[in-house]
User: Fold this.
Amino acid sequence: MRTKGLKIFAGNSNRKLAESICSILEVPLGHARIEKFPDGEIDVKIEEDIRGVDTFFIQSTSPPVNDNLMECLLFADAARRASAERITAVVPYYGYARKDRKDEGRVPISAKMVANCMVSAGFDRVLTMDLHAAQIQGFFDIPVDHLYAAPVINEYFENLKTNHGIKNMTIVSPDVGRSKVARGYAKRLNAGLAIVDKRRVSGEETEVMDMIGNVDGQVCVLIDDMIATGGSIVDAAKACLKFGAKEVYVACTHALFCGPAVERLKNAPIKECIVTDTVPIEGKEFGTLKVLSVSKLLATAIRNIHFNESVSLLFKG
Ligand code: R5P
Assistant:
């Protein structure tokens, strides 16, 4: 069956990003009413005909995580029952991703369970960005296009290097798990590489054990996929300075900024904190924060998916 065109809808998690994507693609944001009943249940009504339409739903599963996830699932069900030709979940930030394996007895693999729910609800494909672990792609038995914010973040640091004549840049991974990602940045930015040896004490607290590699006299750039409470990144920044770094920049894709994060980051010895707009940060701004937009990357991917063109060129992060 031939597609009757493209329509883009959004949940309540990040309307600003959705509007910006629609404006780049020059398509209006579709009308869907997504509200709550007095008892907290979510109600969805798609207010446009989508029969035979290539339908995209933009929704980060950021806090309030469960409401945003439920909006996503209910939209898919509504769109499937409304005979959409294809339904793509555009999930710039995929929540529940940190539980991606059984690391102890009697715990769920939440990232897999959420993927199952999304497929059962009716999504035909997923477009996402900087998953906490790339192998989560395999948790979905439908196509997943996994983008990286790296092209946007790299461009920022390329310019910083040029404009400030920085010759001694070192990319620092805040834990061993993200060292491969950090190595990619180091290669592209022609910078050194160091790794913080971190131990998680609790959900909010971490402890730095050691620094692997040399940061003495270096302009350090700490790269992480997300900042939640800010514990990991602030401790890592302090560790860089303790081991002799000249100054510390922080770059992360998903600025969840929960609990004490903003206060911690405001008071941290961080020159600049660079984040993207995968989750909304209105009301959480502070002096050293800079927000880069990934709307162009996502808009290009949506366009290419719609026209059955390759998206792999966008993966070169
Ligand atoms: C850890 O594996 C992640 O990449 C982040 O470093 C971590 O989840 C951030 O959490 P928080 O900001 O609460 O330390």
